[in-house]
Request: fold
Amino acid sequence: MNSPAHGLELWLRRLALRTSLDAADRRMVLDLPGRVERVRPNHDFVRLGERNGECCLIVEGIAGRFGQTREGLRQLTALHIPGDMADLHSAVLPQAASALSAISEVVVYRVPHAAMHGAVQRSDRLARAVWRDCTVDAAILGEWLTNNGRRNARARLAHLICEMALRFEAIGADRCAFTFDISQVHLADALSLTSVHVNRTLRELREQGLLMLQGRDVRIHDWDALAQAGDFDPHYLHLQREHPDTGERGMRAASSDFG
Amino acid sequence: MNSPAHGLELWLRRLALRTSLDAADRRMVLDLPGRVERVRPNHDFVRLGERNGECCLIVEGIAGRFGQTREGLRQLTALHIPGDMADLHSAVLPQAASALSAISEVVVYRVPHAAMHGAVQRSDRLARAVWRDCTVDAAILGEWLTNNGRRNARARLAHLICEMALRFEAIGADRCAFTFDISQVHLADALSLTSVHVNRTLRELREQGLLMLQGRDVRIHDWDALAQAGDFDPHYLHLQREHPDTGERGMRAASSDFG
DNA sequence: CGCCAGATTGAGGACGCTCAATTCTGGTGG
DNA sequence: CCACCAGAATTGAGCGTCCTCAATCTGGCG
Reply:
């Protein structure tokens, strides 16, 4: 349904969130060339170790970055939704250290590195915004490490759902009722759990009246309780235009007036 | 012992690993202004949520980036050694999403963001190298997530030791005999384990003749076996000047002729 | 000599895993 | 319209890795 143009708009909106870009900057982003590609679920569109010459903008669907052990155990190290430039870092580090794979049916828009570098060289503001976007991905990664390493299954799952809710909200969805096209196996890969345990934990959250996840649809019944259960502080997502410059964080277990 | 100048040299060497920087670029890096600060073990030098105006180059000692849960459980999301620009990303995202803390006695060199931006604006090559350095940190973070999420304690510990060995080697140490000034509590924080379990696992590796970790000194007796035990593939560290452009990775369980 | 942080060891418990069977769901073709 | 199928979700039973809670030991230092 979504077009590459819409994907670029979503990305631009995020870039512009904390940097003031002028009309020329915006044009450059929206005019980024590329080619559209449709990827079936569970198919890689960036293979491990391959040197690739494009950044992949997610236009539609959910994509994941996978790490893997010798024994074949998989770990999702990132989940990407429309408007995410999934391997922006490949612009400066073309040798992929992890694979990108479609989780649902995905549409990507492949933007040549050369075009990306061209845009970034022509505008310092844009360069900074792009670099920052990379940095936000790293901040999310750090939060995932803390989440998976130091919280139990229930909190972990709640935390991930909260994160995805806010990220979907930022691209126009309803925070408490959105489509999240992912299987329990993939949730397990993201959370360093097994799908069996994800299933039981999901049931627990459902029975406690916090959320429902049926088929592709998430419905959050009690945002505050879910954020509390997930020990969720949305700061790391850097979704707000401006931070209250108080030095206070104070948004632990984000209350529902966030945003 | 180390001077800020030496720290900057180490950092520059890494920047220059994959980008050809000219004399002017090198000068700009080596002339980066800043102020030296000594930090005692277990003291934060970048506090959570505080907006800070400098990037911290580690000149001496070991520093760590910490995440934390509501209950106070801590997770190390990065370990930094001399020559690391520990919070380079703060140049574009000043609101710290995690704290930086000294693990051993640490000397940092605080470089004002303004100086960093100035250098980066004056040279596209430098801009790209700096952005890439940020990206390598993210690649390491991703590997940590996979490591902690999908490997058992023994492999996890072996993997981390291998990583640190190569990173120390890159700044002049001996891969198989180096000083790693860190407590078992901090190792546990890095590996998402408890210190008790780190202790037992360390003993196991010692009894199997793989390594010795006494006091601050690591001695690796059998590199190949340790890399095998840790399922260690050094690619993600991006320490080599050039990658064999074959598309083959082939360095799983890095053999000792790496580097 | 006393103190303290860190390392070490023991015993018991729990959270999440493994293996396996069963049910549900949506899509396909007859 | 139904039979069929594959993939996903669900549930059960038993188990193991790692955690918790101590207690003890060690080495450096005032």
Remarks:
- The beta strands of chain A are 35-39, 44-46, 54-60, 63-68, 74-80, 99-102, 106-112, 177-179, 211-214, 217-220.
- Chain A has eight helices and ten strands.
- Residues 124-150 of chain A form the longest helix (27 residues).
- Residues 243-259 of chain A have pLDDT under 50 and may be disordered.
